[in-house]
Amino acid sequence: MTARILQPARNVMQSGKAKSRRWLLAFDPASPREVEPLMGWTSSADTRQQLRLWFDTREEAVAFAERNGIPYRVEEPRPSRPRRHVSYSDNFRPDRLAPWTH
């Protein structure tokens, strides 16, 4: 069973970057999930899927995996796009391309 070392994307519901600089070590599922026939719950016998380890740097996560003999792969984060800053007053500029109407 291999582990993924990645920097998760930030929450799309928030504009801040809190908790997005840390690195995560998460295990890939070893067996597919199954639907329990009586209750209809989804279950799995693989308990490593529940384990998520957080590290401050990529090097710490790699060192932990190597020290414990865990096969791993590192997923590099995508470069973030620069944010375009707009202000509310831009809606009322006289040189606006489309007139502001309500």
Count of DSSP-assigned helices: 1
Taking all residues together, what is the mean pLDDT?
86
For this entry, what is the oligomeric state of its chains?
single chain
Give the helix/strand class: mainly beta
Q: Helicity, in percent?
A: under 10%
Region (Disordered): 75-102
Pfam family, one: NDUS4
Keywords: Electron transport, Membrane, Respiratory chain, Transit peptide, Transport
Protein name: ETC complex I subunit
Main attributes?
single chain; 102 residues; mainly beta; four-stranded mixed beta sheet; two-stranded antiparallel sheet; 1 helix; 6 strands
Structure commentary:
The structure is a single chain. By secondary structure, this protein is mainly beta. 10% of the residues lie in helices and 21% in strands. It contains one helix and six strands; from the N terminus they run E-E-E-E-E-H-E. It has one helix at 58-67, and strands at 3-6, 23-27, 34-35, 42-43, 52-55, 72-75. The strands form two sheets. Strands 5-2-1-6 form a four-stranded mixed β-sheet, covered by helices on one side. Strands 3-4 form a two-stranded antiparallel ribbon. The longest helix has 10 residues, at 58-67. The chain is elongated, with a radius of gyration of 22 Å. The chain starts with a strand and ends in a 27-residue tail after the last strand. The mean pLDDT is 86.
